[in-house]
């Protein structure tokens, strides 16, 4: 770990549901307070607040607003608007702020999920003059469409099949069945996946994540302070980020992604290799993204992700359990924060029925911009030197 | 494919593109300093950061780089399905997200040659779309 060694000492997660009567503000507050209490801290111990911009209720100055509502006056605040990239980016920014001496105990809060909430519409006004103008008029801006274009490139380059995408969906569903806080818990077979209707080919319905409401939060502080706190400390061993493009027109390739550069940096910082990782919590808006990320992280060779995800290799009990909480695909799309909270829960050995035995290390991925921006975290329950 | 609820906003960075399309021409920016083409429009060149540029008419020929046939209205757009979204690599070397027009959903393949087919729509909005070209 470069800079001040840091750890995640608190996690909070609200109920995850298809619909909620709660606003994104209330959900975010519930998760934040849960994380602070989980750490055994008081609100007044928090001197840094970082928020993830929610799609359901985007607003400026979100971190000062959250601080005000919590009744605290932090020394450091920051709003992160990197959509699915934000959860790991919040942790990265918390570590950076702590390393710079700006603050010492940081609340990273994500609220609202990816579904319009019943008491507030999704903030979809007139189009901006940004990238949407070159996607929306062609019906290409909906995420299943823009990501499908990447999935098609992977199939073309490596012969990857829809059945292999389906193996990712099946693994996530099996894991969600062991998670009481998951939206989709009905058993799913590969046949179910194959017979689900095409939405944007090659994606079928069951290649796509489940929109949901809910929120999550984590508390980051120094590894030194973490050792005196309530929970088993989960240290941040490595952080890596990479931004290689923002819109599809500038993508050189879609069979690979920014995950590659992010993971290289994270593994180098951690001094670890993929072979030393016990589980992966990978941002999974669509099945193919998991497969590309596994390759880019070096868990298998480029082009072999399709074969890698088959045969139960990414399921609990397999070589590399992936998305042990069910992921966006079956727990529900909270914006990706639950990948972080699940990794911490696993590394505390608090994951009950879905616990990865003897887990010591985990990678977490967050990403946005159609594979163009990626943030990797490597977490461990061992001491980082 | 005539639903323009999601019509683009024209601004000084992009109005030449949309105006050209109303005349049936696809204009792309060419950097006056390094000759790199660029799309979508940007005030500066991503390669050399110079702002001076000219708008040149693309040949309209290109190849399919990726494609997806959309079978259901997603995010409320558009009303008519199926429709085909493509990323086309233009002869000039830039990529553009677009649609295939007409009934070519089944025939679309990566590498297939395409040619420009500008769609004139309601409210003065014209869009650069493509049709499959003869392979020869």
Sequence of strands across the biggest β-sheet of chain B: 6-5-4-7-8
Helicity range of chain B = under 10%
The total strand number of chain B stands at 8
Strand content of chain A: 15-25%
Classify the secondary structure makeup of chain B into a structural class: mainly beta
Helix coverage percent of chain A: 25-40%
The CATH architecture term of chain A is 3-Layer(aba) Sandwich
Overall residue-averaged pLDDT value of chain A? 93
Number of domain units of chain A: 1
**C-alpha termini separation of chain A:** 7 Å
Strand element count of chain A: 11
Strand content bin of chain B? 35-45%
The figure for the number of domains of chain B is: 1
Q: If strands are numbered along the chain, what order do they take across the biggest sheet of chain A? A: 3-2-4-7-1-8-11-10-9
